[in-house]
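SAMPLE LOG
Freezer: B-3
Tube label: C17
Construct: single chain, 445 aa
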Amino acid sequence: MGHLAGKDLYRELGSKIDTLVCRAPWNETLREILKSLYTEEEADLLIRMPSFASTASAISRSAGLPESKTRTLLEAMAVKGLVVDLLMKGESYYVPSPMVIGFFEFTMMRAGAAASESGTPDVKKMARLFHEYMEDGGPFYSANFGKGERVGAMRALPHEGTVAPDHAMEVLDYEKAAAIAESSGKAAFGVCACRHKARHLGEEPCTAPLGVCTSFGYAADYLVRRGLARSASTGEVLDSLARSKELGLVLNADNVQKGVTFICHCCKCCCLALKGISTHGYPNAVVTSSFIASVDAAACAGCGACVKACPVDAMRPVPGPTEPSGKPGRGSVEVDEGLCLGCGVCAVKCAKACVRLVPRKARVLHPETTFRKVILSALERGTLQHQLFGDPASVSQAFLRAALGAFLGLGPVQKALMSDALRSSFLKALESAARERGDGWAVDL
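STRUCTURE (predicted):
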């Protein structure tokens, strides 16, 4: 531990986490969060491990530690959700957890799943700290959504049966919650981090179920192995989707087309992503579906059920014309197209079926794979150089990281690479390079 002396270890750890796919700007609340979750040895290891998925032996070389010691630390960190271990072709690959989706969710899920076990975090303390950092005047939302970023971690799914019948055939399989569940192979249920946090802050009780945070595939495998979730059958997942529809919860899924790893069942009172829109004013905190609400004003009774149900306040009442008697006439509702998620909650709650989802003028950008989502999200947030050249022990990577960072820091460059003209060829080039160095499995996630 002598090599840690004199270092502001948690400040360095904060800087490392801020380079991951989700930004986490430094402040003293972040320091307190990190000190509560990471031991000094764990913090030092994460600082020195690559930002991308790596084997324990590669991390050992990068960190300059014996492999046995490295494996012991990584095991402890994986249990706490500070790193995610992926089992691929008989080998474990470890990747640092960002704040979201990462150690915020895993910490609150772990506290809920194993609250009686020794070593679990003080859930009330962690709920307070995460609230202070992400909501109570903290820098989280502005750092991740303040520049109009289009690629976020999650996207809204339209509830089944809410798309207008003449457009129902336009709903693609990756936009159907049931199709995702039925094709996933493996699923799990965990504690909803947002609702769990809210309960321990003493906020008004939420009636939505707590243990329905749904994960799929390799994410479900990780969470179940580490005791953060329990295995769930396809039937259980389909039942939870139907229940969430009845309750008017938003289905927010992993923002990819292939290999979806989660579906959140989000309530407007607790969900940090939805509150990022409705409370904090960042309409891009959730990527919309390719559909948008449309109101049949002639049939609308003006009851306001859709207005009350909308999770992001995108439905607004419109007063009707005044009748000759002086009484107000029947009103209607208008849709704020800049806020509407295309989730279909309004249509679910409209008893007269006056609200339906229709296609947006242009389909929304949803990355095809997790690899592409990470690349595009990091590009928008200025951290791509750390994803591509993220080995702190490599001098050559440090040079490439600095050079690429300077290049991508030029606004026109970033804008060009995100454009329709260059985005696809840029991603294909990176995929090809990853396959050539033997990381084809990561490209296919």
